[in-house]
Every structure is written in C-alpha cells, then in structure tokens.
Design brief:
Blueprint lengths: L11 E3 L2 E13 L3 E12 L4 E2 L3 E10 L2 E10 L2 H14 L1
Antiparallel strand pairs: 1-2, 2-3, 3-4, 3-5, 5-6
Length: 92
C-alpha cells in the first residue's frame, strides 16, 4: 500500500518479471479520496513483448494512513480514449 498519492503505481511484477509496466500517470485529485489516470502496457507472454498502450482511471481511499484501491475503469482502446476526450471537450 502507498502512503502518498505519488507512491501509487500499477506496475506489477511476478517472480522478477514485469507484467504491468506503468508508462505515465496523472493525479486528477488528492485527499481522502484520490483519482489517478494511468497509461500502461501488459506483458504478452506469447509474443515475449509488451502490448499496446492501455489506460485506466482508478480511485483510492486513504484509510489508516494508506491508500487502498476502491474502483477502476479500464479504457479498452485508444479509440475509446479519444471518444472520451471528445465528449469532455464538447461539454467543457
């Protein structure tokens, strides 16, 4: 668990092999509830390489001094990400 928002990561290893590689993250909100968006890649065991860029929005709640994951929304493709961007830009 992470004590600060800056320490939160979605990078994940198993037996020394990086399976989820965090490429970038942006903190959307901080406080008792934190919202972050991540750009990442998953390791493709069959191909022996990382796959395409993927995106996820995650919410964390701070309890007893540590951030605990509470919810997530995975953006399935760059096309879906662009549609989200377009919708938000038209509303704001």
């Amino acid at each position: 668990m992470s004590k600060t928002v800056e320490e939160i990561t979605i990078s994940y290893e198993e037996e020394g092999q990086l399976l989820v590689k965090e490429i970038d993250k942006r903190v959307l909100s901080k406080g008792a509830w934190a919202t972050l968006i991540f750009r990442y890649q998953n390791w493709n065991r069959a191909k022996g390489e990382f796959g395409k860029d993927m995106f996820t929005v995650r919410r964390y709640q701070k309890r007893q001094g540590e951030y605990i994951p509470k919810s997530k929304f995975n953006i399935s493709s760059a096309e879906q990400a662009q549609k989200i961007v377009d919708a938000l830009q038209s509303w704001i």
